[in-house]
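Subgroup meeting minutes
Present: P.N., E.W., G.H.
Scribe: E.W.

1. P.N. recapped why we're keeping a running log of single-chain structure predictions: easier to compare across weeks, and new members can see raw inputs and outputs side by side.
2. G.H. added today's entry (362 aa).
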Amino acid sequence: MAKRKRRPLKVPVIKSRVSHNQVPGTVSYTGKKEAKTTKLEIIDYSKEHYERVDTENIEDAFAFESSKHVTWINVNGLNNASEIERLGDYYKLHPLIQEDIVTTNQRPKMDEYEDYLFIVFKMLHYDENGLLINEHVSMVLGRDYVTTFQEADGDVFDGIRDRLENSKGRIRNAGSDYLMFAILDAVVDNYFMVIETISAKIEILEDQLFESKVESDITEDIQDLKKEILRIRRAIIPLREVINRIEKTDTLLIEGRTQNYIRDLYDHIIQVSESVEIYREMIWGLMDMYMTTISNKMNEVMKVLTIMASIFIPLTFMAGIYGMNFEYIPELQLQYGYFYLWGAMILVFFGMIWYFKRKKWL
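Output recorded in log:
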């Protein structure tokens, strides 16, 4: 027998958003979030001083280079690569750093340079439509400044802004290293909210499965939840390594008292990552639970059909015997034979019902 040829698996052609001929260090935005203008939010502060400037002019940030206070420059909008390059050139950021700032598929990481630290991480949150937003954020930590780069407006840093403006907590009394910690802490705290949302979604699906309220599109919901947890995992697990490196790094940019807070932050990211792994296993088990529920329903249907068939088989046998066209069949001449046969069939019927109930099959 001739062997059947296997059809090759059709793989879709994947087009890279980054040119393979691109020179390393070229600043080219690879994301999808388009901003008309690049917006800057500049906060210059110390224990006794607070100043905030909102602008769309990159050059306005240059005036704070000689500031004697701590300066936080938050840049919104990465698609204007030329503006990012101007800012990076002015602050003497390495070309590879500038490239990583606008490369949104960059894995969370930390690069240590002589005068600054460069950190990449992902900011996760749900929008008003319940969709998971995975935003690429970069941060440069210098001696007296922190610069953050976001893809678009909207973040989880409102608590930090409030503490800076109203001089709450210790942030106004600390340096730029503590501001770096506060930003990472806000991101990790929001991870907890994302994880709680995932937990709520899992509970809803589990309740539907246990209560047999399975909708036709529940498999799509489970697959969407799988994709969500994988996106969350790809953001959180590498950040755990980044924070571990920050904790262990030997740099003059981070003071000893701030290291204590970073160690606490590392404990938090460990807790989040463990929760992610637990919920990942639970989501993987939801499909098995769904298939088990479907199988149980099918078994119940087959059980009812089998019992009905078992009850009617002897009745059909009796009806078949007395329905044969032989002339000399016993009991055919009995005056009440018809009623006797019905009585026997009813007795057999109820007898089998009683037997099935005794065996707890009904």
